[in-house]
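User: Can you help me understand a structure? I only have the sequence.
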Amino acid sequence: MGAAIGIAVGLAVGLYLLFLLGNYLRKKAKGLPTGECSSCGGRKERLIQQYRRKYGAKKAESQD
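Assistant: Let's start by predicting it. Here is the structure, written out as tokens:
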């Protein structure tokens, strides 16, 4: 009985680690932010869109 529980726990931990590794590799392949920056990656784009709606898009100034 104890060996079966050990195998089940080991299998669950192994699957969880494989999931984390697969998720990390997927993000790297798609160019998504990973690590500490990943938590705010989506909010940045939303914040920029809200700013542009309120203040308008900045126009490029030509320097002739």
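Now, to help you interpret it: The radius of gyration is 22 Å. The chain has two helices and no strands. Let me know which part you'd like to focus on.
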